[in-house]
Amino acid sequence: MASTKMKIKKSKGGGYEVMVLAKHPMETGLRKDKKTGEKIPEHFIENMEFAVNGEVVAQANLGTGVSKNPLIGVGIPNAKSGDMVTVSWVDNKGESDSAEKAVK
Amino acid sequence: MKRRIFLKGSLAAGTLAVAAGAGMLTPTRVLASAWPKAAFESETEAEALQAFFGTSEVEQSDQVSIKAPLQAENGAVVPIKVMTSLEDVEGIAICAIKNPRPYTTSLRVSGGGGGLYSTRIKMGQTSPVNCYVKAGGKLYMASQEIKVTVGGCGG
Fold it and tell me: Which one of B18, B97, B119 would you mutate to disrupt binding with A, by most A Cβ within 10 Å of its Cβ?
């Protein structure tokens, strides 16, 4: 299920911006299954970590209020060409995924 | 889940330096810090700010800008982008104040991170969206009202 895509683009204000698209249902725990009427349990990404050359620069905290298949963008102003950007996430059920890409 | 229990108490340190994993590219590093459960479960904004930033004293700032639609066609996917020109950014948080849990998402920034955070959030109804930026030990905010025609919370 897990599939995480990453894109790095130049940011207008200088530096770079990392865009991450994580495939995830992000269930709120409020929705009901239409057939059985039972509540669908919460299932969402908790933390998403961004690292440049192995050093963590930012950590996004997500909750149930974030849309399905979250698209998260974070600025990395000090990154330069050739730097390795790693992103990894963990959800409330302990599932995780990661992706890495070099800055062009 | 040890980190959940750990979190209950204090959450004063916004940005935690990470000693582990320097120079290594393995994704299975120790997390910088735990998920801010208390902030996410707060029913009021002030509580959430207190839990996440350690302060709820806020100052309006034009150095915090929000890029978001004035009207969202689909409340399940509302793109929000927060940008700031402030120096020494420590954290960014987004609150959709009329959602059942106003505190929606946040970003902790450690050395080398920047003043930009974009995400897509769910909104149950038309509501102001408050974006907070903590920089240099102070909390700044900007707000924008977003109209929602079809809600995106629940079924």
Answer: B119
Q: How do residues B62-75 score in pLDDT, each as one tens digit?
A: 889 999 999 888 88
Task: Identify which of A9, A50, A87, A41 has the alpha carbon closest to the alpha carbon of residue B92.
Answer: A50
Cβ–Cβ of A56/B122 closer than 8 Å? no
Nearest-CA neighbor of B129 among A68, A30, A65, A43? A65
* C-alpha distances out from residue A83 to A53, A104, B3, B116, Å: 6, 8, 30, 19
- Where chain A has pLDDT below 70, the residues are 1-2, 13
pTM score > 0.80 for this model? no
Which position has the token pair 């600025």? Answer: A75
Q: Å from A7 to nearest chain B CA?
A: 13
Higher-scoring residue by pLDDT: B103, B154: B103
Q: Residue B102: closest CA among chain A residues belongs to which residue?
A: A65
